[in-house]
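can u pls check wat happens w/ beta-D-glucopyranose
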Amino acid sequence: MKWLVLLALLFWTAGLCSASAPCWLQGADESACAGMMLTRGATAGPQSTLSPYRVAADYDKAHHRFNVHVAGDEFRSVLLQARRPGSTEPVGTFLPPSERSGLKRITCSSQGDSITNRRPLFTNEIRLTWEIPEGESKLGEIYFVATVVRRCNSYWVNVQSQSVAELTRDIFWPGTVPEGYLWSTATASYQIEGAWNHAGKGESMWDHYAHSVGSYEGDEATKSYEYYSRDVEEIDGLGLNSYRFSISWTRILPDGTVAGGINQDGIDYYNNLINELLINGMTPYVTLYHWDGPQALDAKYGSWLSDSIVKDFNDYARVCYQAFGDRVKHWVTFNEPWSFVMGGFGIAGAPPGIWDSERTEMYKAAHNVIRAHARAWHTYDEEFRAEQQGSVGIVLGSLWSEPKDPNNPQDVLGAHLYQQFVLGWYANPIFGNGNYPQEMIDMIAASSQQEGRSESRLPVFTEEEILFNRGTADFVGLNQYSARLIFATDQPTEVDETGWFNWMSIMVPDLKGYQETVDPSWPKGEMIFLRVVPWCVRRQLDYFKRTYQYEGAYYLTETGISEATFDPPKLDDVWRQCYYMLYTNEVVKAIELDGVDHRGFFAWTLMDNVEWASGIHEHFGLYYTDFTDPARTRTPKGSVATYREITTNNGFPHGAAHTMTAQDLWDWCHTQEPYTEAVSQEAAHRTTADPTVDDFLPGVRVGAAFRDKVVKNNNNNNNNV
Ligand code: BGC
């Protein structure tokens, strides 16, 4: 008997365990091993709630590496690897554990590093360090996987950690963006130019709409028409190499058409601005339509409701390519079509002020926007590209939608559908298969049928149009400010238990069965819709890449935060300094960790301006604008220096002073504290339980007259779910 025990111990100590030793220790192929283990009846399975093991990893800031930690029920040995999806090839190296751990490092064929205990020692955790390999791209997709040997005949196969992208979601990541990256700021003509009816400019839909609701702040705005050189000086003061601005259609074509005549003063104005930018080493990034379409065309045929606008927009685009294309190499056809279509043709919060109770007009308007985009892209492609060598893209905006419970497939589906109904509505025709997302087609067709309609409320693209739409972008601009949590419910209420208004029931009315909320820990700024959620940037990029397989150039074409009006103004805008530190670091992560071809960051916005229907009371600017002064004097806020440090250093190089500051302030910037000061007394007293529709609209606020209708309709819809 005694010799039997001794023999058993000998095998044990040698780590052989004969027939039941894990085969990868003997150098066989691991996938074969996994099969063998299972056929031998071992206890094995992927990481699940049943698994007694967990692999976790955290980033070691000081040494720029990951500490990986396998823990669980006691185990005897473990094979630990860093891997990419779809590959069993290990990436990088694990450092051996300290001598005292009693574990030894052994190498087992090509399968990577394995840490095994060759003595009869059981443990319930090991900690290892993974050195980040030099020059590895797309680190974000890597994850850690452990094959745990519990007993000689009891294994647990492939217990996984989250991916590095997930593990790095909230951490500061020192690093830089490539040379040539566009560091920029963005503005829009209506919000800054003023001179609404000067020098030949025609009336825009925003001029008309604002006047009709008694608002005249856009008439002079920040007077950039007059003082554009001052804008360029300020951009220079920010250390930027680019500027995104928009052209006012009616400054070029006063009645919206070429037949109505080209306004030379308008051409001169933009020529001067473009030349001034170029002289100062700044790349112009030009939007053709940032919401201020010609009022004459709205009066003539209902603007975006008529397909006549496709030709007129194309003519306008052609005039711009012809006049400025020798110097402008980045064209954006539309800024955030979802916002102006929904705002103007859905919820009456923007011109032309249509309250679309039938839920038809917004789809018609969007249809013509997409057609107009595709047409303008083809015009550039066919008539200008060869000579001008520029690019034409579009700027899309969507809040990021995260499933409230990632383990609930219904919530996951809801979050996906939200993206499809907001982003995909425009992205799928242009970056996807040329048509609307199938989910939209099916769901709107079904509800149209239920409503007794003979055809879907969603218009249909012809086969020819689908082909014409597809691939009509040389880059994508994404405006990314914030995120929402989406959850499935068949009883949506106006305000959820945390007090959050179910904004999506109004803004995404055909997506029924879901509700939105926010995580109460996300810091809130002045504009209640904007919760500070920096990781929305990477999530949205990742979603876009995966959904459209789009490997082209990405730009973050807008992001920013506002403060209320204060007297005297609060120039030490610590909230904005935090915000830009957090959000610029996201693009560094997207480039370094996720391998995204990201080419530019555009802060919204250069100076306090006319925030659409909110007028001059929402201050998004890096520079303060004194609206009481006829010259609209500007003063840099504290964030000018912060943004400048980041832009002139191309991000956060290791060891730079501002990198260390960002590192130090990182956790604090994720708390509510820095943002609280941005909020007005009035808003500060607002309890979370009483927000209204007015509080939730980005840039536009539904007029009180429409609110009751909106809420009433919402209730009716909910009852019909
Ligand atoms: C728009 C800007 C607006 C900003 C802040 C963006 O959606 O493009 O024009 O000022 O949001 O609301």
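The longest helix spans residues 361-388.
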